[in-house]
Amino acid sequence: MNVLDKHLQPHGAALQLRQKRLEMLSSNIANAATPGFKAQDIDFASAYKSAVSGVGALQTTNPLHVGHAGGGAAEARYRTPLTTSLDGNTVELHVEQMQFAENAMRYEASLNFLSDRINGLRKALKGE
Amino acid sequence: MKPLTVFDIAGRGMAVQKSRLNAVASNIANAGSLAGNKDDAFRALRPVFETVYPSFQQNGGVSTVDVVDVQRSSIEPERRHMPGHPLADADGFVYASNVDINEEMVDMMEASRQYQNNIEVIATAKNLILKTLSVGK
What we know:
The complex is a heterodimer.
Chain A lengths: L2 H28 L9 E2 L2 H10 L23 E2 L14 H34 L2
Antiparallel strand pairs in A: 1-2
Helix pairs in contact in A: 1-2, 1-3
Chain B lengths: L5 H24 L4 E2 L9 E8 L11 E9 L5 E4 L11 E4 L4 H33 L4
Antiparallel strand pairs in B: 1-5, 2-3, 4-5
């Protein structure tokens, strides 16, 4: 990993995970009325830890090997509902909306941090 | 199937809620209709939703929704004694549709709220994507 990658990776990885979580939460919201649907989510803390540490990544010792970037902890887990519903659907709209709003806010935060780092690099390159 | 984006997911979500609203509208429109026999009486329409996964990652946590079937409500139509009615059978009975107007109103409100939720999801995702496009500027 080169210096630039190392400089930008923490926020880049966070953005990727936030995007994935955004898709999952929107799946839950779209399926709010589907009987038997089980809401899913990822554990962001552990997923992020494995994404930045590279745990779960496949080592390649030969250019012909197939590599994998890891991120196995970003696997979807089923949500435990606070109250159960008759049709077996575990989507609780208030929970999903709250998580969705929080996720969008944190996505934007990561985006701002990333933007600041890029601007910092630019300034250094220009030497102003 | 290609990987699902937020727009696919919420877009399908809106489409199914729309079809639910359509079913409610047709049920309410026919709530007062009468028929001359049991089989011709109007029975409420009920769309059936099912989760749709992109085929290659069944458990990736990402899925959308689709209407797989529209069924008729199985509640028996109400039999009313109206001998003067032009549709009345030999015994003077007509059969009213089995639509419960209260149930339909609740269904309508739920469908409309969930439609709005999906719009909100799309608006937020669009906003975030536009901000991401202008990163570092």
